[in-house]
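User: Please fill in residues for this 98-position structure.
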C-alpha cells in the first residue's frame, strides 16, 4: 500500500505502525481527470444500437485527445478496446497506425 488511499491510515495504525506525515508528491487530484457518461453497453443491444454506442465512445475519445494535445502536444492516450472492436475504432480514427 502506498499510503494514498484514505483507508490506509487506519490500516497502518491498527497494525501498530507509527505514521510519519509526508507531502503527497503524486498530486493525483491535479493529474487525474475522469469523465462519466451514461452509456448502455448491454450485450443485448442491436447492431445499430451498438454502433451508436461505439460512435459516441469514439467521439468522446477524440474530443478528449484533442483537448489534451492542446495543453501537451506530445501526449497520447492509449485506447484499450475489445479485440473485435479494433477495426471499428481504427476506422473512426481513435486507433492510429502508429
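Assistant: Residues filled in for all 98 positions:
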Amino acid at each position: 500500500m502506498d499510503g494514498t488511499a484514505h483507508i490506509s491510515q487506519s490500516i497502518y495504525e491498527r497494525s501498530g505502525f507509527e505514521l510519519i506525515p509526508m507531502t503527497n508528491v503524486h498530486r493525483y487530484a491535479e493529474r487525474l481527470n475522469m469523465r462519466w457518461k451514461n452509456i448502455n453497453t448491454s450485450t443485448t443491444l442491436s447492431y445499430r444500437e451498438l454502433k451508436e454506442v461505439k460512435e459516441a465512445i469514439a467521439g468522446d475519445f477524440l474530443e478528449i485527445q484533442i483537448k489534451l494535445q492542446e495543453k501537451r502536444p506530445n501526449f497520447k492516450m492509449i485506447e484499450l478496446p475489445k479485440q473485435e472492436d479494433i477495426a471499428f475504432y481504427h476506422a473512426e480514427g481513435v486507433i492510429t497506425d502508429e
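For context: Residues 74 and 87 are 24 Å apart (CA to CA).
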